[in-house]
Amino acid sequence: MSEFLKEGYIIKLGDNFFKVIGSEPFNYKTNDSTTDEFTVISTAASSGFKDITNLEPSEVPMRLYQVRVGIQDGCAYYFKIPTGTNRWGVDEDKDVGYIDNIKSPYFEANDIYEFFLIHDYYPSVNASNAVGISVIPCVYFEGMKYDIERLSSNDAQRLRSEGKPYKEIILGGVKVSE
Asked: How far is the C-alpha of 70 from the C-alpha of 74, rounded, in Å?
């Protein structure tokens, strides 16, 4: 299982460097707040992509989220991270890129499907009902919230030379081809 970042980590996001200055665990279950992301979907139907805006990190203070996904029901969940970019699929067939309760069980979220988020970078999820009854889709998100501060490249290089742990972060979990 991949590790969560710790205070003091130096991270690289794109061309920018940051330092983790604080962290706290979090969990969020869809339809478990004042926002109901999903409604009942019948057998062989899908929900359409729903924005999970409760997973949008704040800009002030600057936050980074490390997120894992657990699935409760028999639906197949397709993700777009950020909201317009398909994840876990291939260019030719988007229907293979989904997470279900076999790939990532509800309270045992598989870190293979882990992703990172910053402000304006949150997921959209489409639930496709493959079970024999109508269901209200449910996705369980868990992970860590990090407070981060921007570093100059000189400061980042100095801290790395002092042995501070370092990690390059790819937002959304995969590189996007240009």
From this structure: 12
pLDDT tens-digit profile of 2-20? Answer: 789 999 999 999 899 999 9
- Three-class SS of residue 172? helix
Residue 133 identity: I
Tokens of 32: 């478990």
DSSP state string for 37-62: ----B-TT-B---EE-GGG---TTTT
**β-sheet with 115-117: strand ranges across:** 115-117, 63-71, 139-151, 16-29, 10-13, 166-169
pLDDT at 177 over 60: no
pLDDT greater than 80 at residue 98: yes
Please report, for the chain, the start and end positions of each structural domain, with discontinuous segments joined by +: 26-143
- Calpha distance 24→34 (Å, rounded): 22
Instruction: Classify the phi-psi angles of 31: left when phi > 0, otherwise alpha if psi is within -120 to 50, otherwise beta.
Output: left
